[in-house]
Every structure is written in C-alpha cells, then in structure tokens.
What we know:
By secondary structure, the chain is α/β, with parallel strands linked by helices. The chain is 43% helix and 14% strand.
Amino acid sequence: xxxxxxxxxxxxxxxxxxxxxxxxxxxxxxxxxxxxxxxxxxxxxxxxxxxxxxxxxxxxxxxxxxxxxxxxxxxxxxxxxxxxxxxxxxxxxxxxxxxxxxxxxxxxxxxxxxxxxxxxxxxxxxxxxxxxxxxxxxxxxxxxxxxxxxxxxxxxxxxxxxxxxxxxxxxxxxxxxxxxxxxxxxxxxxxxxxxxxxxxxxxxxxxxxxxxxxxxxxxxxxxxxxxxxxxxxxxxxxxxxxxxxxxxxxxxxxxxxxxxxxxxxxxxxxxxxxxxxxxxxxxxxxxxxxxxxxxxxxxxxxxxxxxxxxxxxxxxxxxxxxxxxxxxxxxxxxxxxxxxx
Length: 341
C-alpha cells in the first residue's frame, strides 16, 4: 500500500445515504415514505452529499418499487442534496422510459439528479416476468440497453441517427452510474469511463477485487477524467456498542429471512440472535454482512476508517436498516459527526 493509501481520512470524502424506504412490522408504505422524506431532510441538514433510493419489487419490507416517483417526492421536499437511484434495474424497463423519467426529474430539479443503474432484476424471476411482460428475463443485453439509454441523453453517443427522442431527456446532463456486486459492472464502468458504485453492504467478499478491476479498466471519458468509486456499507451506530448490536439484529433478521425465503416486513430488534438461527444460517448471514459496522461512535470511527483504508473509496454510501425511525436518525447523526469532525 502506497503512502497515498494511508492518508485518506473520513473527513476527506463525501458521505451519502442509501434508503430502501423500509416497511416495518406494524407499519405501512405511507409511513415509510414519510420517514424517507424526514430522513432526507435531516441528511441534507447534516451535510450528506446524495440520497439514493433502490428499486426492488415484490418485497414486503421495501416500499421504493416505483423508484422514480419516490425520488421526485424526496427531491421536492429538499433543496440542495443530490437525489437519485441506487439503482434503477435497467433490464426491467425500456431505456426510453427511463430516459423520459429521469429527463423529467432533471427538468424539475435541475443539477440534483443521479441515475444509478443495475443489471439485476431486483426481484424474483416470476416478478421479473410480470414487470417485463414477455420480454427477455436475463440481463445479457445490458450493455446494449445502456448504450441506448445514454444515447437518448446525448445523441452523439449513438451509432447512427436517432429517430426516437427522449423528451424531456435529450441534451440534459444527468450523471449515469453503474452499480454492481461483481466484476462485470466494474469492468464495464471502467471501460466506459463512468462512476461506479459497489454494493459491499450485501456482497463484501468481492469489494476490493471489483474496485481494483474498475480502476485498472478505467478509460477517461466525457463523464469522468479519472475513476470515481463509491462503496455502500451498512452502518448501525448508537451511543453504546451494546445498543448498536441490539439494533443491528433487525438487519441480521432481514438477511436470515431472505435466506429462508421468508419475505416479511422489517422486524424489531432482539436482545440476541441466539436460538433464532442455525450455525449454517449464522455463517451465511455473516458472509453477506461481513463488512457491516455496528457500534458506538468510537467503534464506528475505527471500523469505518479501516474500511476506507481497504477500499480507498472516493465516497461512502451508508445504509442503516434500523427498525425504529428515531434510532435510525440517530445512527446517521452519529456518522455525520465522524465525517465532519
């Protein structure tokens, strides 16, 4: 590791928020959207750089399925923070529809909209078929879809004339990000000279190799002169390690339920996961949540700095799946004090 790789501090980089608009047990999507806007307003006040929402479908614990609509809700209720998708699952949609939606968002909230794109369906195959209505059920044509989408914004990227135009959309400068949890999107983002966001919050094992592949593959473009990598990380912060670990059991239960195929609203925290999972399930959950950070301010600071040392991220995007909204706000506020101080 070079000297440059030891000097990047938490105060040197932007911090951002990824929100899944969680639906908690006993709650409703309407309450989730109120909480989302409340968190976004706090994040803006606290100095977070951007606020992204994720597209998932047929999941009883995630309310942000109509992602573009929720982005508009958040952008309308805030004034300066960047708002975007982390991400839109491009294989689920026509590139023209996404170009028009994000062209509309950029026209309504100029200079504040990000378009993060993923190539996974964000759901199960049956739901993917329902979304696509007989279209392809894989992401093999993702590079072609991406080329088409980018050409709607900038026709100079097209291989020929563009008889169909995105209105609004054409001529607008909307940052396009590629999201990924493997090497495919990392390499493609590098080759196209696009910013890259890696999902370490659920795929920690491949984090550093994917980031290295992205940086190795990078070619300067109209969008970027040098690589820019953002990394997602679960952080549950509280006043004590004990309380943070208790709050973190909500996230652990979420992934345990996913492993079991039991998709239910976000569950309240428990004192201990002992007795709730088998040894195999515990290992599987820990594998998926290996980069997650639970702790008091001091613990989170040390672990986040170590995470930054390992990844050399240009930006960190924090995800806090916490059952109680006030505790969730407090977690993000604690992280604020770490990157501002």
